[in-house]
Amino acid sequence: DMPVQEGDILIPENRNAVQTLWPDATTPYIITDALVSREAEIKAAFKMISDVTCIRFKKRDTESSYLKFVTGNGCASFVGCQGGAQQLFFSSECTVGNLCHELLHALGLYHEHTREDRDKYVTVNWQNIVAGKENNFKVNPGNTQNLPYDLTSIMHYGRDFFSTNGNPTVLPKQSGVEIGQRKHLSQLDIERLNKLYRCGKI
């Protein structure tokens, strides 16, 4: 079994595996038999992305790198194109919005609340985090693409994710802001993907 980090990010056993973008902004996929009945939900998650970017999802033909939708515990994905058959876990408790979040991981995005500049925008309450889940909240130096921090991102954790006592684990410093939505890509999510995949420049 693959170890799970950040709640839903899978780590390759070879940690030096290169995380890359999907060639030509096209992600081939197959749906395993156990998930055929949920194909409409999978396609709805694709549409959330393809409607606002140049990224396309296509049923695998002979491509050597592709996403393989499987059932399992929870929702989980690797970050970026790993090469070969790349599993993406979509269990019964996952919504279309959860799946869209996982697809953004597979396309190369990390969690928003682990950006290096996050402490300017959110407070992490370490004392409220379930023991052993602190990794999910560690800063992950990555490419922010010079775009601002996004509290409304579909890649941001909610207030009580991994809470041990029902109290907030992540609190926005700006009042009146909801975090952790899984209903749509934010404007900055869209910009980030379009920049990453050079949409309009292909």
Walk me through the structure:
With 202 residues, the protein is an alpha/beta fold. The chain folds into two domains: 4-107, Collagenase (Catalytic Domain) (3-Layer(aba) Sandwich), CATH 3.40.390; 111-182, 3-Layer(aba) Sandwich (Collagenase (Catalytic Domain)). Helices cover 17% and strands 16% of the residues. It contains three helices and nine strands; from the N terminus they run E-E-E-H-E-E-E-E-H-E-E-H. It has helices spanning 39-50, 96-107, 187-196, and strands spanning 4-5, 9-10, 26-31, 56-59, 66-70, 75-76, 85-90, 122-124, 170-172. The strands form three sheets. A five-stranded mixed beta sheet has the order 4-3-5-7-6, with helices on one face. The chain has a two-stranded antiparallel sheet with strand order 1-2. A two-stranded antiparallel ribbon has the order 8-9. A hairpin with a 3-residue loop joins strand 1 (4-5) and strand 2 (9-10). Helix 1 (39-50) crosses helix 2 (96-107). Residues 1-6 have low confidence and may be disordered. It comes from Neolamprologus brichardi. Keywords: Hydrolase, Metal-binding, Metalloprotease, Protease, Zinc. Its EC number is 3.4.24.-. The active site is at 102. Its cofactor is Zn(2+).
